[in-house]
Specification:
The complex is a heterodimer of chains A (740) and B (673). Chain A contains 22 helices and 23 strands. With 740 residues, chain A is of the alpha/beta class. In chain B, helix 5 runs parallel beside helix 10, helix 5 crosses helix 25 and helix 10 packs across helix 24. Classes of the chains: A alpha/beta (740), B alpha/beta (673).
Chain lengths: 740, 673
């Protein structure tokens, strides 16, 4: 009976809009109409309103016409008999609800600035001030990429509280295992508890790194989840603010989210759920309410009810039309990307390896087929059961791979997986790589029976699952004996060095095959990355070798070999074969781009780039800023605004997205003058690249180049840094005009 | 007067009551005349040629006598000039198309002329009510809605847009070459078919004139070629004359949105001044609807002893003011005499089309004033003629209403208003349907398509047309519609057919659960709509064309109207307009079934072309089936054929999407309708 649901939603929408409108009037009376409002550190204003109406709300007075529109959108409650049609009006009521709530939450940021904790903390049992509120753009961009590349297939928006703590834990853990994000809003209508509080009580850590996001205690916090989705569509999908239909269809087709209402559903919740239907996000609930099964606005059913808690997770993803593959690994703890972000804190620590306290390393090496027994896992030295009180151990994780298709070049690719794969195990924390690896194993995991041997179990299973096409057999040796670890460390270090030298030695000129990367096309349908040896993928995740391996693993996948073909422009890096491929793969949106220029037809970005460079005309140079830097930059835009400008797969002359690593590659914007053009770089990036920047400076004959590049401590306007550059005699000042 | 079998005449209890009253009072009605005069059998088959003075030539098909099967077929006669049966039947058919097109287009011209006067500010009482629709329509006519570029762009005033639009539209009536503008609204594939067949109308009037010429004695004597021009003429009705009038009326009077109202003679009120508006053009009715709310007018009525004024409609003038203002309906075509027979009707105000001359006689038997308002449509015996003049529309309206009020004290006993009326929810313009299917942003015919694809809705049927005294009033409509609903076919309706549905409660949302199959009932419940959507007057069949086109464009159901699991019907048709409408639906790709009688049966060859051959050219075809139940089943069978061709005759698999599938999604899928 849709009528019951929609009538409730319309009633709820009236209540919410009236409440929010009163709040707005009150706020204007109190703070004046020129009071600034907005969510913290975002370039997307109030993102639902901005994306659907194209309206930038910066001051209280900007919200007045929007609130007027909300009231206009509110339909009357359907009559008892011979009612007028209600689906369209009901969905509009839902939109009005969300617009009004977004304004309400923005006012809350003015009136109660400490209401939300913000940030990316992980909260454990006993935490109190854990509601995060709106995600800042830095968080959104980092997490958004996981939606884009598929490592997070969607999100479950949970409202209310589960019937019991255990049922809350079970449902959320199921979603975590399926790699979904869990966005939570609203305590139950009695105001007693919420899923987030139940999780904490049940010993589950929450917070962004765990993929469980406690947005807020009120239903209005639902706008944070939807705002996140809409920002993804704007940042990665190239959907323009105000393109309302495109925005909502994008969400329906590409962002696999759904709503779970777990306790008594109030009119206000119905109103929010009606709003979500516009996005194509259905509601699946354990509550005894009517169902809305016909399809159309959502891909499948709109409201499915009376689902037992134990079946809710499975039913929800089926209703949303989502396919997720769960990795079942034979270890005693949960496993999945959502567990990557948990912390193992000092008090919970059972065993620690590496981290400066002991030596720990990881090394993947290839062997002859007869030297490897697939699935064999040996622990050489002590394992956890041998350490009743825990403590520290040295650690060497050596993975031996064999197979006809295996190439030595794939070793580092597999090796790099170890970090996140080990982290996926619940209660295990992993930091670093190679000979600076650092393992922390928590008491809870040990209590469940986790041993070091299980690291081998994980690697064997996941390597087969994800990379099975490039090898046949894998065995794992785990060393904890100090002498043995030292011996292996020496050998491995030698190998690391050789590998680096080999990759460094590859050039674009001597390579005929480049690789495409269209991994992000699920979000940015017109964007195509092309990766060459000297221009690694702009997200930082894929270098040429990774793409090559990925192609071998999945020959029809997102990484395809491209015969670069005739060189059309050597200076700017333009090839016929590449252009032809890009034209087709971008669905005719981009006809050509250059690898080595940000001035002329620069390569496009989906929005996932680690860094963005932009022209600074006054300084005759460029600036480079990375995603983690949230401050102002000399081009007048913060990173997130820049990313908004250039994202979505369009060519934007004067700007280019790239990886951090690319900055010190020899071809970096070589057509425009190369690294010597860089006159400003955010400090954190400069520090991260310090060693390589010095090395490149030396190669270019300016060993102190790094010190001649300005950063935010010098200034964040061109005027401020120009004096510094002149004083330091920055090489860019003497170069040909950058635009001309 | 012969004993009347009421159940055979009408299934409407209000009608039955009034027919009885008429009989008792010795007032002759259409049913009495139908009893006395049977239809001319040769004329009914279209086999009588009377286009020159050497005839009339009658060429009825040779009758087969029992036992003569297998004997040599007797050759069908020809006319004196040698015209074959197929030529004669085709010419008669074509002239019905021409008359129907002329009716809609002349209506349309009137609206366009008024529209221009409104734009010029010379038509008191009118205004441009629906600016959003004005802008949408202007875009389709390449009339700029803003001036200046980029940030300097500003909207043009609505009057300026309207004036330019009016001039462009008015030109189309007399346009001599090129293509009518709205051809481009049709699906691309449909446009190509029309161009390939050479039937894209050049203008509106030219196609009527040429068709009349070609069916003159001794001109076009090839039935296929005659039908080509008939098609071109019919398309000038559906995709020009009718469509223009719908659009301009919506701009002037408001695009209909859902509204509740009531239907049947029970809406008349004994203690009120009862005025019924009857005919087809809403220009004057719009003003009458406004005037009856003026306090001075109400006071005037009260001074005459009435409690107030009850305005109601009949036929398509009724549909126009019903759709836009919820003004109640007194009944459909066959109710026109019956309303007078209540004795409670103070004025019957008529304009054009479907107005029976007998009204003058019936009105004389009671106190009712028959007021004609259109100079093109006078009736001998009318009480008074008050010609509509768009420059003084309000004055005319007030004069009409005062005439009615003045007549209130003249009521003669006995007044008998049947206490029969039914609630209904109407107002389903094609734009409104789109909105209802998902709201301001997500509203899209895709929602309907998706439920057609998943099988909840089996298909879409347009059930339209008139009442016909040769069949039980409303019965064929009801039988057909109920059968369609039972089989999960949603029904779009206009004209007197929609009113028939309304009289029996089928225009209420509650009727979905009662009459529909489970799938359709569920969809109606979800959207909150009745299972029969009242889309307006018969001129608004253009809305059905737009809805069908919107379905095609929303995706998932093929690339042309002829791919849709859809069918059309006019089970109780009687007017020439119905033939014009039928022909433009067939030429737009729709399978169209008529009931009662079919005016081509005098030629087997020509009928065969209409029922079969034409489908190869246009993807749509005619059919005739007197039994409405069988007709509905034929429509459903056709719908099933189309479902099969689309590959949606099987249960749909639930597709679960992984990331690779999401990457494959077309960038532009389902965007910016």
């Amino acid at each position: 009976m849709s009528k019951i649901i929609i009538s409730a939603a319309i009633r709820g929408a009236h209540k919410i809009v009236n409440k929010c409108a009163a709040k707005l009037d009150e706020a204007i009376a109190k703070h004046g109409e020129n009071q600034d409002i907005g969510f913290p550190n975002t370039a997307y204003y109030l993102p639902i309103i901005y994306s659907l109406m194209g309206v930038k709300i910066e001051k209280l007075k900007d919200a007045v016409p929007v609130m007027k529109r909300c009231k206009a959108l509110l339909p009357p409650v359907p009559a008892e008999k011979h009612h007028l049609p209600y689906l369209g009006p009901g969905l509009d009521a839902g939109l009005a609800t969300l617009f009004a709530e977004e304004i309400f939450e923005a006012i809350r940021y003015v009136e109660d600035p400490n209401f939300y904790a913000g940030g990316e903390e992980v909260y454990s049992k006993g935490a109190t001030n854990f509601w995060t509120g709106a995600a800042e753009d830095t968080i959104f961009r980092k997490r958004g990429i996981e939606f884009v590349d598929g490592s997070a297939p969607g999100f479950a928006a949970i409202v209310g509280s589960a019937p019991s703590v255990q049922e809350a834990v079970d449902l959320v853990t199921e979603y975590q295992k399926k790699n979904l994000y869990i966005f939570c809003a609203a305590k139950d209508i009695e105001g007693k508890t919420s899923v987030c509080e139940q999780l904490l009580e049940g010993g589950v850590q929450i917070g962004w790194p765990t993929r469980i996001v406690p947005y807020g205690p009120d239903i209005s916090a639902a706008v944070f989840a939807l705002g996140f989705a809409n920002r993804a569509a704007m940042a990665f999908g190239g959907v323009k603010p105000g393109a309302a239909l495109k925005m909502l269809i994008y969400n329906k087709d590409r962002i696999f989210a759904f709503v779970n209402a777990l306790s008594t559903i109030s009119d206000e919740w119905y109103a929010n759920a009606a709003g979500c239907i516009n996005w194509g996000f259905p509601t699946i609930t354990n509550q005894d309410i009517p169902q809305v099964l016909p399809t159309g606005i959502c891909t499948y059913e709109h409201v499915v009810s009376n689902v037992p808690m134990a079946e809710l997770g499975q039913k929800s993803i089926e209703v949303r039309g989502l396919k997720v593959t769960v990795t079942e690994i034979d270890i005693p703890v949960n496993f999945g990307a959502a567990f990557e972000g948990e912390r193992v804190r000092k008090d919970d620590l059972f065993l620690e390896c590496g981290g400066g306290k002991t030596q720990a390393l990881e090394w993947v090496t290839s062997k002859r087929m007869d030297e490897v027994e697939d699935g064999k896992i040996e622990v050489i030295g002590k394992d956890i059961p041998d350490l009743p009180d825990g403590g520290r151990l040295p650690l060497g994780v050596v993975v031996e791979v064999a197979g006809r298709n295996f190439q030595a070049d794939f070793e580092p690719i597999l090796e790099r997986q170890i970090h996140h794969l080990v982290n996926y195990a619940q209660g295990i924390m992993h930091i670093g790589q190679r000979d600076i690896a650092w393992y922390r194993i928590g008491k809870a995991a040990v209590e469940k029976g986790f041993t070091l041997k299980h690291i081998g179990t994980i690697l064997h299973a996941k390597f087969h699952q994800d990379f099975g096409a490039i090898f046949d057999k894998v065995q794992v040796k785990i060393y904890t004996d100090a002498d043995k670890v030292k011996e292996i460390t020496d050998v491995a270090r030698h190998v690391y060095h050789e590998r680096d030298a080999r990759v460094e030695g590859m050039t674009d000129e001597t390579t005929e095959i480049y690789y495409s990367c269209t991994l992000c096309q699920s979000f940015a349908p017109n964007h195509v990355c092309v990766v060459s040896p000297e221009r690694t993928g702009l997200c930082g995740a894929y270098n040429w070798m990774d793409c090559k391996a990925s192609f071998e693993i999945n020959p029809t996948g997102p990484n395809q070999p491209i015969q670069k073909g005739e060189t059309l422009d050597e200076k700017y890096g333009n090839w016929k074969g590449v252009n032809d491929f890009v034209f087709k793969a971008s669905r005719q949106a981009v006809a050509s781009y250059n690898f080595y220029s940000l001035i002329y037809d620069p390569m496009t970005t989906c929005g996932c780039c680690e860094c963005i460079s932009a022209v600074l005309p006054m300084c005759n140079g460029i600036m480079t800023v990375n995603r983690d830097y949230t401050g102002e930059t000399p081009c007048g835009m913060k990173f997130t605004t820049l990313a908004g400008v250039i994202g979505g797969g369009q060519t934007t002359p004067g700007f280019v997205g790239h990886s951090k690593y690319n900055v010190c590659q020899r071809k970096f914007i070589l057509g425009d003058g190369g690294l010597l053009r860089v006159v400003w770089m955010s400090k954190n990036l400069k520090e991260e690249l310090r060693e390589r920047l010095i090395k490149r400076g030396e190669e270019l004959g300016i060993p102190d180049l790094i010190d001649r590049i300005a950063d935010e401590s010098v200034g964040v306007t061109e005027d401020e840094i120009l004096a510094f550059l002149t004083e330091k005699n920055h090489p860019a000042l003497g170069m040909d005009p950058i635009i001309g | 007067m012969a004993e009347l079998d009421l159940d055979k005449l009408s299934m409407d209890p209000a009608a039955q009551e009034m027919i009885k009253k008429a009989a008792a009072e010795g007032v002759e009605t259409i049913w009495d005349r139908a009893e006395k005069m049977k239809p001319c059998p040769i004329g009914a088959e279209g086999a009588c040629c009377r286009i020159c003075a050497q005839g009339p030539c009658r060429v009825p098909p040779p009758k087969k006598k029992a036992g003569e099967e297998g004997a040599e077929e007797k050759k069908q006669r020809t006319g004196l000039c040698g015209a074959t049966a197929e030529t004669i039947v085709a010419r008669n058919f074509a002239r019905m198309v021409a008359a129907g097109t002329a009716a809609h287009s002349d209506h349309s011209r009137g609206v366009a002329k008024l529209f221009k006067e409104v734009a010029l500010g010379k038509a008191e009482g009118y205004q441009i009510k629906d600016v959003a629709k004005l802008r949408r329509v202007a875009r389709d006519w390449d009339v700029a809605i803003s001036e200046g570029e980029g940030d300097d762009a500003k909207s043009r005033p609505k009057e300026v847009i309207a004036l330019e639009l009016a001039e462009k539209v008015l030109k189309e009536f007399g346009q001599q070459e090129g293509e009518i503008n709205y051809v481009k609204r049709a699906p691309k594939k449909r446009q190509e078919i029309w161009r390939k067949q050479g039937v894209v109308p050049r203008g509106i009037d030219i196609e009527v004139v040429e068709l009349m010429h070609r069916t003159h004695m001794g001109v076009d004597q090839d039935y296929h070629n005659i039908m080509k021009q008939s098609t071109r003429c019919a398309l000038a009705d559906g995709w020009a004359g009718s469509m223009i009038s719908t659009d301009l009326q919506d701009i002037l009077f408001g695009c209909p949105v859902p509204i509740a109202s009531e239907i049947n003679l029970g809406v008349l009120k004994e203690d009120h001044v009862n005025i019924i508006i009857h005919g087809h053009e809403p220009l004057l009715p719009e003003l009458i609807a406004a005037v009856v709310q003026e306090p001075e007018i109400i006071q005037y009525a009260q001074n005459k002893g009435a409690k107030g004024i009850q305005l109601a409609g009949m036929c398509c003038s009724a549909n126009e003011i019903l759709m836009r203002h919820g003004i109640p309906v007194a009944g459909n075509y066959l109710h026109q005499e019956l309303a007078i027979i209540t004795g409670a009707l103070d004025a019957l105000v008529v304009d054009v089309q479907c107005i029976m001359e007998s009204l003058a006689n019936v009105a004389k038997c009671y106190h009712t004033k028959l007021i004609t308002t259109d100079t093109r449509a006078r009736i001998t015996g009318e009480t008074v003629h008050i010609p509509f003049d768009e420059h003084h529309g309000l004055d005319v309206a007030r004069q009409v209403v005062r005439e009615a009020i003045d007549n209130f004290p003249n009521r003669r006993a006995p007044v008998m208003i049947p206490s029969v009326s039914a609630p209904m929810v109407v107002g389903f313009s094609y734009e409104t349907i789109q909105y209802l299917l998902g709201g301001s942003i997500r509203g899209s015919y895709y929602t309907l398509n998706d439920n057609i694809i998943n099988g909840r809705v089996r298909g879409v049927a347009g059930v339209v047309g008139c009442n016909n005294c040769r069949t039980t009033q409303d019965s064929a409509h009801l039988t057909m519609i109920k059968e369609l609903l039972k089989n999960d076919v949603i029904v779009l309706s206009t004209g007197c057919a929609a009113m028939a549905a309304g009289k029996y409660g089928l225009l209420t949302p509650e009727s979905a659960a009662q009459y529909c199959g489970p799938g359709l009932a569920e969809v109606c419940e979800t959207v909150g709509i009745p299972p029969v959507l009242h889309m307006g007057a018969c001129v608004d069949n253009s809305r059905i064309l737009m809805a069908a086109t919107a379905c095609v464009k929303a995706g998932g159901l093929g690339t042309d109207i002829s791919d849709l699991p859809a069918a059309g019907a006019a089970p109780e048709w009687m007017s020439e307009k119905a033939i014009a409408i039928g022909q433009y639906f067939v030429a737009s790709g729709v399978y169209t079934v008529f009931g009662v009688t079919f005016p081509s049966t005098g030629s087997e060859i020509f009928t065969d072309y209409l029922f079969k051959g034409i489908e190869e050219e246009y993807g749509g075809k005619w059919d005739f089936e007197a039994d409405p139940l069988v007709a509905a089943q034929k429509m459903i069978a056709h719908i099933d054929l189309k479902r099969k061709a689309l590959g949606i005759d099987k249960a749909r698999e639930r597709v679960l999407f992984d990331m690779a599938m999401r990457r494959e999604l077309e960038a532009a899928a389902g965007e910016e309708a």
